[in-house]
C-alpha cells in the first residue's frame, strides 16, 4: 500500500507545473528536516534572498548611505532584488512600491491602496481605530468579530473596546469550521461600525465567503476588515472586486519574507484623501505626514495610503519580502491556488486512509471552495505526538487543545513530502495510545 501511495505522490510531483519553484528554496540548510509542513506559519527562505540581502547591505546601505532614502539606485537594477519593481525611487518609496506589487500579485488590488509597514498586529490596531473613529460620527460603535479569530486580533479588539467604549459583538464559531454569512447577518445591526474576521481561519483552515460577508456588512452600513495572514500567497483574493474596505496580513507565512517580516495593510481608495468621510489612523508619525521633511508644526496626514505609515519603514526587512513576492509573480496566484487545493486534497486522502483508523479526525472543511492552504488533524495526544514528529525531522505545528496543522506551501511543498510526513505520523499514532 505504501509503495502505491509513493508512486502516486511521485506522479503528482512529476505532473506539478510548479515543481521547479521548490528548487529555488534553501532546502539544504535544514538537512535534518525531511518534511516541512509549517510554511503557513513561517515560510522557507529562498536562495536568492541570501544574495539579495547581501547585495542590499553592501551596495545599497553601504554604498548609498543616507542618500538611499530618496535617490533611486541602479546598483541592483536587473538583478532579482529590483526586478519588476514599479519605479526605482529611494527607500522612501519601498512601502508603497512593495505594497502595490503585493496588491497586484496576491490581493486583487489596484495600485495606491497597499503599504508595507509595522506588524500585522499594529496595522490591525491602526485600521480598527480608523474605522471606529469614522463610524462614531454616524452613531455606530459596535464591532462584529468571532471567538475563534487569531488571538492577536481578539486581544487588540478587547483593548480598543476598553479604550474607546465600543462594544464587541462576538459570534461563536465552530473551531472545526469558521465564520459563515448567516452568522454575520444575524450579528449585524444599525450600530455596527465594523465587521472583522480572518479570511482563512488559522485553526481549521476554513475559507470564509469574503464576497458575501463584505456585501452583507455594506448592506448594514458597516465597514469590513479582513485579516489575510493565512490567505495571501495561498488563495486567490479579489479585494477590489469584493468591495473590501480594509485588510491586513503577514508576509512571513506564504510570502516567505522571514521571521518578523513587516506586514501589509490595504485601504480602499474611496476611504483615502481629506474628504470628511476619509479614514484616519491614530498613530500620527512623521512618515505618514503629507510632507515628512517639512518638519513643521501640526500633523497633516498624507492624502494617499502613505498615511498608514507611522515611523521609518523597515527597509532591510523588506528585502526578503521582495524576493518572495517576485517569486509569486512568476508562479502566478492562480496556479498557486490550484496546487494548494491539490496538496490539501492529497493530505486529506492520506489522513482518511492512514490515520482515521487510529482515531485521528479531520477539523478542516472537505469542500475545497471553503478550504485554505492547511489541514488540521486532531487526536487527544497530539501535543506529545507533535513533539515526537519534530524529533524525527517532520515539522508541522501543534495548536491547542488537540490539533496538528499540516501547512502546505504550494511553492515549497512537494506531494512526496506530504506522504513522508503523514507516514511518520501514522507510525507514531499506531503505537501511541
Ligand atoms: C500569523 C497571524 C498574525 C500575526 O500577527 P503578528 O503581528 O505578525 O504577530 C495575525 N493574524 C493572523 C490571522 C495570523 O494568522
Automatic annotation (TrEMBL):
Keyword Hydrolase: yes
GO biological process, one term: L-tryptophan catabolic process to kynurenine
Record's protein name: Kynureninase
CC per GO annotation: cytoplasm
Cleaved signal peptide residues: none
Source organism per UniProt: Kineococcus radiotolerans (strain ATCC BAA-149 / DSM 14245 / SRS30216)
EC number(s) reported in the record: 3.7.1.3
One Pfam family from the record: KYNU_C
First-level EC class: hydrolase
Keywords annotated in UniProt: Aminotransferase, Hydrolase, Pyridine nucleotide biosynthesis, Pyridoxal phosphate, Transferase
Alphabetized GO MF terms: kynureninase activity; pyridoxal phosphate binding; transaminase activity
Function: Catalyzes the cleavage of L-kynurenine (L-Kyn) and L-3-hydroxykynurenine (L-3OHKyn) into anthranilic acid (AA) and 3-hydroxyanthranilic acid (3-OHAA), respectively.
Assembly description: Homodimer.
Associated pathway: Cofactor biosynthesis; NAD(+) biosynthesis; quinolinate from L-kynurenine: step 2/3; Amino-acid degradation; L-kynurenine degradation; L-alanine and anthranilate from L-kynurenine: step 1/1
Catalytic activity: 3-hydroxy-L-kynurenine + H2O = 3-hydroxyanthranilate + L-alanine + H(+); L-kynurenine + H2O = anthranilate + L-alanine + H(+)
Domain of life: Bacteria
Family statement: Belongs to the DegT/DnrJ/EryC1 family. Belongs to the kynureninase family.
Cofactor(s) named in the record: pyridoxal 5'-phosphate
SUPFAM superfamilies registered for this protein in UniProt: PLP-dependent transferases
Amino acid at each position: 500500500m505504501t509503495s502505491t501511495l509513493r508512486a502516486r505522490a511521485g506522479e503528482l510531483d512529476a505532473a506539478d507545473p510548479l515543481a521547479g519553484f521548490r528548487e529555488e528554496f534553501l532546502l539544504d540548510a535544514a538537512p535534518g528536516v525531511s518534511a516541512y509542513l509549517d510554511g503557513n506559519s513561517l515560510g522557507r527562505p529562498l536562495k536568492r534572498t541570501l544574495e539579495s540581502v547581501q547585495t542590499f547591505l553592501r551596495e545599497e546601505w553601504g554604498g548609498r548611505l543616507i542618500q538611499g532614502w530618496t535617490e533611486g539606485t541602479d546598483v541592483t537594477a536587473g538583478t532579482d532584488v529590483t526586478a519588476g519593481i514599479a519605479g526605482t525611487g529611494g527607500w522612501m518609496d519601498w512601502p508603497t512600491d512593495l505594497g502595490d506589487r503585493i496588491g497586484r500579485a496576491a490581493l486583487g488590488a489596484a495600485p495606491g491602496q497597499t503599504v508595507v509597514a509595522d506588524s500585522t498586529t499594529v496595522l490591525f490596531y491602526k485600521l480598527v481605530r480608523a474605522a471606529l473613529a469614522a463610524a462614531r460620527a454616524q452613531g455606530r460603535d459596535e464591532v462584529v468579530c468571532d471567538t475563534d479569530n487569531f488571538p492577536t486580533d481578539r486581544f487588540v479588539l478587547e483593548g480598543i473596546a476598553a479604550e474607546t467604549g465600543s462594544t464587541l459583538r462576538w459570534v461563536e464559531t465552530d473551531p472545526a469550521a469558521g465564520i459563515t454569512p448567516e452568522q454575520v447577518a444575524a450579528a449585524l445591526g444599525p450600530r455596527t461600525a465594523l465587521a472583522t474576521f480572518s479570511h482563512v481561519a488559522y485553526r481549521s483552515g476554513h475559507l470564509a465567503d469574503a464576497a458575501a460577508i463584505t456585501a452583507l456588512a455594506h448592506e448594514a452600513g458597516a465597514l469590513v476588515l479582513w485579516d489575510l495572514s493565512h490567505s495571501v500567497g495561498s488563495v486567490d483574493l479579489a479585494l477590489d472586486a469584493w468591495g473590501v474596505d480594509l485588510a491586513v496580513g503577514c508576509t512571513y507565512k506564504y510570502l516567505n519574507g522571514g521571521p518578523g517580516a513587516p506586514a501589509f495593510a490595504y485601504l480602499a481608495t474611496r476611504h483615502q484623501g481629506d474628504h470628511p468621510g476619509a479614514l484616519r489612523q491614530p498613530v500620527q508619525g512623521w512618515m505618514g505626514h503629507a510632507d515628512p521633511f517639512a518638519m513643521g508644526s501640526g500633523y497633516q496626514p498624507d492624502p494617499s495610503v502613505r498615511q498608514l505609515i507611522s515611523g521609518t519603514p523597515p527597509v532591510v526587512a523588506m528585502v526578503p519580502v521582495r524576493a518572495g513576492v517576485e517569486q509569486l509573480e512568476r508562479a502566478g496566484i492562480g496556479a498557486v491556488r490550484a496546487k494548494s487545493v491539490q496538496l490539501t486534497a492529497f493530505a486529506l486522502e492520506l489522513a482518511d486512509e492512514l490515520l482515521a483508523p487510529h482515531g485521528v479526525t479531520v477539523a478542516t472543511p472537505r469542500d475545497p471552495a471553503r478550504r485554505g492552504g492547511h489541514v488540521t488533524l486532531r487526536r487527544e495526544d497530539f501535543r506529545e505526538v507533535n513533539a515526537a514528529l519534530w524529533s524525527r525531522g517532520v515539522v508541522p505545528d501543534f495548536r491547542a487543545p488537540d490539533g496538528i496543522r499540516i501547512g502546505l506551501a504550494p511553492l515549497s511543498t512537494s506531494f512526496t513530502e506530504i506522504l513522508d510526513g503523514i507516514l511518520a505520523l501514522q507510525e507514531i499514532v499506531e503505537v501511541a495510545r
